[in-house]
């Protein structure tokens, strides 16, 4: 039985609460695909078990609360959080160093990109909290902006594809590539604006 079917069976029985709980677990670094979880939430809405608009709100709440807990764990406990075995498994020394390097290179935009990097999402959010250089409102803004791109895509895709599983899975794969392409374009635009401002600042000097 595939992951989507397992989630559908679970969500059909427990509705919004089940979707929220699984998204929360995804935020903790458990290897359950967040995109498939959101798609499954949309599918049960398409089948009439829940309201798709409420499911979108539940999806947003689930991903933001899960991410926020990881961020606050790092912010509250600092390096001590690495002594907690489940987090130590997610945030290895190699990942910690890699994330720090990305922060030094790209700044707060790493928080935006993290939503689209399943293997690095939790380590990035924990590290952001540990540095204590990122205020919670900025973390929430960057993560929320990214979630507003990904969450509605998956939930409404599941809703519209509920009756045609084969078409749905084809669109899921295309959607993954499409979201990454959109993110890449956004980052390119941001990079070009930053480069232009830097050149203008250098010219004034």
UniProtKB/TrEMBL annotation:
GO cellular component: plasma membrane
Domain VTT: 32-159
Keyword Transmembrane: yes
Domain of life: Bacteria
Membrane topology: Multi-pass membrane protein
Record keyword Transmembrane helix present: yes
Residues spanning the membrane: 7-32, 52-73, 139-157, 177-195
Subcellular location: Cell membrane
Record's keyword terms, sorted: Cell membrane, Membrane, Transmembrane, Transmembrane helix
Family to which this protein belongs: Belongs to the DedA family.
Protein name: Alpha-amylase
